Structure formats: C-alpha cells, structure tokens
Amino acid sequence: MNIEDKLFTVGYKPDEHKSHLTIKDDAVCLEKCGEQGRPCTFFCPARVYTWEENHITVAYNNCLECLTCRTGCPYKNIDCQYPRGSFGITYKFG
Ligand code: SF4
Ligand code: SF4
Asked: Which of 20, 37, 52, 83 would give a disulfide with 88, using CB separation of 3.0 to 4.6 Å?
C-alpha cells in the first residue's frame, strides 16, 4: 500500500471558515527559504504545502495533524494549530 492509498483511509471534516495552518510571512518564504529548498514542500506527508510562482499554497483540508510543520520550517514561519472542535481528521483504522 503506497502513501496515496493510505491517505484514502482517513476522513476529513473541513472547516470551511478558518484554516488551522497559516503562513506567518510570505516574504520569508520568497526571500529567505529558497536557499533552504523550501522544506515544507517535502517534509509534509500529506503534501499540504506547494510552491507556486512566488508563494506557498496551503491545502489545509489534506492535513493529517502530525504537527511536523511546527518544527520542520527552518524559520518557524508556519502557525500550525489543531482544527476547531469537531473539525479535522478522522482515522478510520486507529
Ligand atoms: Fe516558508 Fe517555512 Fe515553507 Fe520555508 S519551510 S517555504 S519559510 S513555510
Ligand atoms: Fe503536513 Fe503534518 Fe503540518 Fe499537517 S501538521 S500540514 S500533515 S506537516
């Protein structure tokens, strides 16, 4: 079973009104993090972060709530919280 197959085993109730993941300063991603390789685009197991032209997009509806991005961003530039109560991930097999 590959990662894409495993991701199909989790459910997600999205909070349409508020993202629980926020990039604090887009300028840091653009001006400083290029030399670091923008690690959020590869350490996130759910591929939430994507570099598009000059900014990071955040597909927070795919988040697995592992909290890796709290420590993985070299500039501590991601505000990573749990979703509000009743929203977020549901693990089918655990
Ligand atoms: Fe921006 Fe942090 Fe991602 Fe770098 S790792 S691109 S600073 S959010
Ligand atoms: Fe990705 Fe985990 Fe951060 Fe969610 S908490 S965005 S799954 S690294």
From this structure: 83
